[in-house]
Amino acid sequence: AGREIAGGNSVVATYGTFIVNIQPEQYVATPGKETWFKIETRDYNDQPVQAKVHVNFTRWKYQKGSRGNATQESVASSADVDTDAQGRARIPFTPPDSGSFHALAVAKGPGPREVQDTGYVWVSGAGESWYSDGDETVTIVPDKKEYKPGDTAKVLIVTGVPNSKVLVTTESRGISSVRVIAANGPTTTLD
Question: What is the DSSP-derived secondary structure letter of residue 149?
Answer without folding.
Answer: T
